[in-house]
Design a protein that fits this description.
The protein is mostly helical and 383 residues long. The chain is built from eleven helices and no strands. The chain has helices at residues 2-9, 26-32, 38-44, 59-68, 117-128, 131-144, 151-156, 178-190, 221-308, 317-341, 344-375.
């Protein structure tokens, strides 16, 4: 109150206020989510983490600072009433610093009434839906969206914030240069904005008929029954959560083992395929050398025999070479077929038959050459 009166007495201040900060700013959001999105906090703080004593370390510290430190007016974010515990657990093992007492900042320190993060969120949701909150929710609406957001009632409720957090005080048409515009944009985007006023009069209280709204009176039988059911449901949720976590771990292990087996099988198959390919290449190379040797021998014998005979014997050398090329081509095709259908032995048998046929034809040709030499008389030499 003294802070407000001092600003009001200061003639240089056009608008007095109670709090120089705002209850909803990007800084407060990333403060709570530092374990979930640390890169946002680093960006907001110019590539450095906040000092360790200002990192979200425990619920007790945060509550104490908000209640006892006037400028600290942060509100809890929706994650406190959800089901995801990620923002409370340092699962990424971030180095958040060490306190002056030598304590390493790790997971968020929870209140004693919370057994674990899941239990904490369950009880926070239960508190949000409790009869006390239901009976007082309209008061919060008046402060944030209603009649106590602006004007005299806001002053009486000590609900006045820095002027530039109100849209009527942000006058873009009065900006004189680029520096003022940049400063105003930073103020609007990073230091919070009060929402539009939705209600001019007091908001009606929520009508709750199932619960006893007077905290001084012992709860009704209906309320006690619902509390018991809530406790049973809480235990059931915890049990299901543990089972789900266990099943997820087992499934991940199973997938990991299957991936490892698949990788080993792929490596073995790759080695086998390379070996078969190398064997096929060697076989083709050996066959080509054999055919070349046979071709050279046939060519040498046939032409030597032809030169010794006066009566030439019909022999088409081009056709012979074509036959050999067809033979080689068919051998290559046979190798490709063997790779696809595994019939290499049958193909090799067929090739051996063809080679035997060529050899037989060569023997027949030699026989004909020998016969022709015996029947033909020698020709006289010309002088």
């Amino acid at each position: 109150m003294d802070y407000y009166e001092d600003l009001k007495a200061d003639k240089t201040e056009r608008h007095a206020y109670y709090y120089p900060t705002h209850y909803s700013t990007p800084g407060f959001v990333v403060f709570f989510l530092v374990r979930r999105i640390p890169e946002f906090l680093v960006k907001l703080q110019n590539a450095v983490f906040l000092p360790t004593d200002r990192v979200f370390r425990s619920m007790e510290q945060t509550w104490y600072a908000t209640v006892n430190n006037g400028p600290d007016v942060k509100e809890l974010i929706p994650e406190f009433y959800g089901t995801d515990i990620g923002f409370l657990v340092n699962s990424e093992k971030l180095e958040l610093g060490v306190t002056n007492e030598g304590e390493v900042v790790d997971n968020v320190v929870l209140p004693e009434w919370a057994r674990n993060p899941s239990d904490f969120l369950i009880k926070m949701r239960a508190a949000l839906e409790s009869n006390y909150v239901s009976a007082n929710l309209h008061k919060w609406i008046d402060l944030i969206f209603g009649c106590k957001q602006r004007g005299d009632q806001a002053v009486l409720a000590q609900n006045m914030f820095y002027p530039l957090t109100y849209e009527e005080h942000v006058r873009w048409n009065e900006v004189r240069n680029a520096y003022e515009r940049a400063a105003l944009e930073v103020q609007v985007t990073e230091f919070g904005q009060t929402p539009v006023q939705l209600f001019k009069g007091p908001h009606p209280a929520r009508v709750v008929r199932l619960f006893n709204l007077d905290p001084s009176i012992e709860g009704s039988e209906t309320e006690q029954l619902l509390v018991k059911k809530l406790k049973v449901a809480t235990k059931e949720v915890e049990r299901l959560h543990l089972e789900l976590e266990k099943a997820g771990n087992e499934q991940m292990k199973k997938i990991s083992d299957q991936m490892r087996e698949l990788k080993d099988l792929e490596l073995r198959n790759a080695g086998h395929v390379d070996k078969v390919k190398e064997e096929h290449k060697n076989e083709v190379r050996r066959l080509q050398e054999t055919v070349k040797t046979l071709e050279a021998r046939l060519r040498e014998k046939n032409f030597m025999d032809l030169e010794m005979h006066a009566k030439p014997v019909d022999f088409d050398e081009d056709e012979f070479h074509q036959d050999l090329e067809v033979l080689i081509s068919r051998k290559e095709e046979q190798k490709e077929d063997d790779r696809r259908d595994g019939g290499r032995e049958a193909r090799e048998s067929e090739l051996e038959t063809l080679l035997a046929k060529v050899i037989a034809e060569n023997e027949e040709l030699r026989s004909r050459l020998s016969k022709g030499q015996a029947e033909s008389p020698p020709q006289p030499r010309r002088r």
